[in-house]
DNA sequence: TTCCTAAACGAGAACGTTTCTTATTTACAT
DNA sequence: ATGTAAATAAGAAACGTTCTCGTTTAGGAA
């Protein structure tokens, strides 16, 4: 009846989208993006699978922006820029985060370092310009 | 009737605690700490004032740990270590975050950088050791 | 095919954190 | 004393996220 099996395995669609996009989406954003193609997709499924992928290390959480958790399908450690205006998260290319820091921190704390997040917070060009406009 | 005016201005007590403590507390932690001294303190008051101080730049948000926002009364930019086990946040002393990075990022994005957060995530010594124990 | 089992899912309830609303209290100036 | 504006307590409400449970699906066995 159906030409493909695409109505199954929404899980794969969720991971595929995370891998491909650069918007560092929230659960809601993933849901909104996939809903047209998978009309019977449930928000719970998105949450469930994001949580699973995160635990398996296939995706990474970037923490929350205004109370909403954001994810990144690119698990290679890199630096992010968060715009407080439009809430966009963008990758910052090629900023060297001294690898020696990890060892230094391990030495200081005596614990175990899993990840290191370097995030710049501010306003993107567009939002910075908006700032001056009339309200 | 009352010897002091200490039952007023809980707002000040909240800020004072943030300034003094190193536990990088959540709203709940602030509330729990101040409740004995201010028995009629309300959790809503803590949230309201934390939010106000944050907006005024008098304190800083460190983001959320397991869904709970954490604050720091020390607004001097510095590096943090978050233990995923006990959820403790500790300051990391004197790790140089190249100041030139800000300018580099400003150049890349064309926007405005407000802050730069460098956070290490892992397990503190105590929690790392617990890991091996029987469950 | 039909049956069976385990995984995946949808729908909505439940949960915990945070924000909002409203009435009360306080501080201070009149 | 009285008026006024800010601060507060209490609890309701909102929001994002997780959980529960009954259903559907995939894939293997008979």
Descriptive report:
The first copy, chain A, is built from 5 helices and 5 strands. The longest helix of chain A has 14 residues, at 43-56. Chain A has 135 residues and is α+β, with helices and mostly antiparallel strands. The radius of gyration of chain A is 18 Å and the shape is globular. The first copy, chain A, has helices at 10-20, 27-34, 43-56, 100-109, 125-130, and strands at 60-65, 68-72, 79-83, 89-92, 112-123. The first copy, chain A, has a 3-stranded mixed β-sheet. The first copy, chain A, starts with 9 loop residues before the first helix and ends in a 5-residue tail after the last helix. In chain A, a hairpin with a 2-residue loop joins strand 1 (60-65) and strand 2 (68-72). Chains A and B meet through helix 4, strand 5 and helix 5 of A and strand 3, helix 4, strand 5 and helix 5 of B. Chain A binds a DNA duplex (30 and 30 nucleotides) through residues 5, 7-11, 26-28, 40-45, 47-49, 51, 64, 67-69.
List the helices and strands and how they pair.
2 copies of one chain form a homodimer.
Chain A: H1 10-20, H2 27-34, H3 43-56, E1 60-65, E2 68-72, E3 79-83, E4 89-92, H4 100-109, E5 112-123, H5 125-130
Parallel strand pairs in A: 3-5
Antiparallel strand pairs in A: 1-2, 3-4
Chain A binds a DNA duplex (30 and 30 nucleotides) through residues 5, 7-11, 26-28, 40-45, 47-49, 51, 64, 67-69.
